[in-house]
Amino acid sequence: MDVAMRKFPKGLPTLEEIKKSNGADPYPETAWIWGKEDEIGRINLLTPTRILSAQKSEIRDGDTVSLNWPMNLPTKPAFGRAPCQHRVANHPDGPMSGSQWDGFRHYGHQTQGRFYNDLTPEEVLSGTRCGIQAVSNHGIVGRGVLLDYYSWCRQTGKPYDPFTSHAIQLEDLLAVAKAQNVKFQIGDILLIRSGYTAAYYEYEKSDPKKLDEAGSLHPTLAGVAQTEEMKSWLHDSYFAAVAGDAPAWECWPPKQWALHEFLLGSWGVLIGEMFDLEALAKQCKEKQRWSFFFMSTPLNMPGGIASFANAIAIH
Description:
This protein is α/β, with parallel strands linked by helices. Helix content is 32%, strand content 14%.
């Protein structure tokens, strides 16, 4: 935090301020503001003060909810990946099952050719910098907020199929937040329920062939829209991390560019995928409170590209 505050003494910069600060840089939206030695990106926002504040404000009843989808689901993972097995393999045979975090070595800025904090592709193959172990050593602990977009759409007469390229627009996310009386804070862990796991269980019973289509190399998936206004909002809200219940978090396939390259590569924001948000959504509705204490301990694998989530929410 100190490095960022020295560079931006008036407060955390907006995306427009980042662009001005970078001047003639060919990649003006790059926000590596935490120092040359940083490996955890916006996890830096989860300071002891913010963690204690979240603990005091969010833990009231002691009710816990696991956010971890079974490691053997989906049985046919998206993007042609293999389901989780008791072996280690590289992509495209690498597993993509269960709830997981995409780490900073997973996806870089595509035209810049760099991962987070100027990490090169060569470093990914030869070293451990910006590996998932750095996040594991810190932990992801703080205030979580759930935007139950899937329930909101059904309640407002806007149903859709989560197994299609349905784009979740910013105006609708803000409408969900308003309906749930959610006020965002710097350092929040943002969870978005798009309905993937709910639809998965429905199709498992009614149309299993649909799950085969979802497990293809080129799936169609509902998720956050790739728009300039969404990009600015995600940057300027300073979420410590984002996650959801779908395999890509963002709408897939993207038309021009993916939010992954900005969240992971340009800003250092972890992306969680296939989180099990069903029980959490039910508990939030019962309590009429969509914020909670969030804890996650990624695997301590030096140089790790990604990790199972090991996440839990506490009201």
